[in-house]
Amino acid sequence: MDRFVSIYNDKVEYDLPDNINIYDTTLRDGEQTPGVFFSIDEKIEIAHKLDELGIPQIEAGFPRVSENEKEAVKRIANEGLDASIICLTRTKKEDINAALDADVDGIITFMGLSDLHLKVKMKKSREEVNQICMNAVDYAKDHGLYVAFSAEDATRTELPKLIDIYKQAEEHHADRIHIADTTGSINPYAMRYLVKNIREAIDIEIALHCHNDFGMAVANSIAGLMEGATSISTTVNGIGERAGNASLEELIMNLKLLYNKDLGFNTEVIHELSQLVSKYSEIPIPDSKAIVGNNVFRHESGIHVDAILQDPLSYEPYLPEMIGTKRQIVLGKHSGKAAVAEKLNTLNIEVDNGKLLEIVNLVKQEREKGEDITNDKFDEILLKANIQR
Ligand code: MN
To answer: Which residues does 153 contact at the CB level (< 8 Å), separation at least 6?
Structure first.
C-alpha cells in the first residue's frame, strides 16, 4: 500500500468532470512574482519538466512584454513538447501579433471587468470595453488561434455583467472563458455559486485562475470543478503575484489522493520540478509547504519514528516515492531509542540497551545545547559514549 488517507473521503460523492485540463502558468504568472526572472534556457528546462509530468497546456509567457520574452515563448512553442503552448495577451492587436510571431497554439486575452478595474485602468464605458474585447477575440480567431477570453477580477464583477461578456465571447467563437479570482478573495462556496451560474448561461469550456491571498486557491479551484469548470490554472510551488497561485503539486495530489481523481500525471517528477523552479526563481520552498516542503517526509519525534520504522503510513498519508523524494529521520531532542538504533544500524554498530539509552540521552543533551545532530556530531557522541568505530 502506498497511501492511507482519510477513510471519510470515500463517504462523499464528488461531481468532478471526466476530463480536467491543467494549464500551468509558472512561466507567466509565476515569473510575475516580484524579483523573479527566468532566462530563456531556464524557461525551456522548466517547460520540459512540466511536459514530463504530463501537463497538457503550458502558458509560456507574455510575448508583448519584451523581445526576449517573445523569443522564449517561441522557443518553447518549437520544442516539440506534447503540451499545447499558449500565452497571455491584452486585447490589443500588437499583443496578438506578438503571440502569432511566437508560434503559439493559442492565447489567453484578458480585460479587467470589475467597475473598479474599468475606472482605474480603462477609463472607458463598459460597452466600449466589451467591444474592444470582442474585436480581440475576432482578430485572434481570424488568425487561427485557440482563444481563451479571461475576465480579470471576475470575482469582484457583478454576475449579469460577467454573463453578458462571456455570452458575447461564446457568440464570437471563443474556445474558453476564464474566471479570474485576481485578488484571491472568493471562498469555495461562493466559487461554486459563481461557476454554477456561469455554467448555466454558456456552453463553452470554463477555466479558473485562482490566487492564494487567503490560502484558498486550490480549494476554490476544486470547488469550481464540481460545478462544471474543466480547466485550472496552476504554478509550481504556488509562486506568482502576491500570495501566488493555485499550487500545481497541491492540486494534482489533492485530486489524486483526496478525491480519487487520478489524472495520469507522472507524479514522481514533482519533487524534481519543484526544486528546479525554486532554484531558478530563487524562491526557497517553506519547510512546511504542503507536498514539496522539506519537512513533509522528515521526522524527529520518538513516538512518530518508532511507528514509522514499522509502517510509514502510521504518520504519513502517502509514501514519499510517489512524488519522487525520500523520507528523512532526524535526530534531536524528541528522538527515542528506535531512531538512534536505526541510525546505529546504518553504521553497522551494535550496542546493548544500556549503551543505547546513554547515546539517546547524549543526543538530547547536544540538541538542547543548540547543536544540530549532523553525522560529525553523531560521531562525537559515539566517542563520548566510548564506542569505537
Ligand atoms: Mn494572475
So the answer is: 112, 113, 114, 116, 117, 180, 182, 183
Cβ atoms of 76 and 58 within 8 Å: the answer is yes
Cβ pair 304, 342 in contact under 8 A: no
What is the model's pLDDT at position 303?
87
State the distance from the centre of ligand 1 to the C-alpha of 202, rounded, in angstroms: 23
The DSSP 8-state label assigned to residue 66 in this structure reads -
pLDDT tens digit sequence for 176-226 = 999 999 999 999 999 999 999 999 999 999 999 999 999 999 999 999 999
Helix ranges (DSSP H) in the chain: 40-53, 67-77, 93-101, 115-117, 126-142, 159-171, 188-201, 217-225, 248-253, 270-281, 302-310, 337-346, 353-368, 375-384
C-alpha 242 to ligand 1 mean position (Å): 9
In order of 173, 229, 380, the CA distances from 232 in angstroms are 21, 8, 52
Q: How far is the CA of 19 from the centre of ligand 1 (A)?
A: 23
Relative to beta strand 205-210, strand 231-234 is parallel
93 is written with which cell numbers? 492587436
Q: Give residue 168 CA to ligand 1 midpoint distance, Å.
A: 23
CA of 235 to the centre of ligand 1 (A): 10
Alpha carbons 181 and 32: distance in angstroms, whole number = 16
Is there a contact between 94 and 76 (Cβ–Cβ < 8 Å)? Answer: no
Global pTM value: 0.94
Q: Cα–Cα distance between 198 and 206 in angstroms, integer?
A: 9
Interval 281-335: pLDDT, tens: 999 999 999 999 999 999 988 888 889 989 999 999 999 999 999 999 889 999 9
Helix or strand (DSSP H, E) at 299? strand 298-299
CA end-to-end distance (rounded Å), the chain: 37
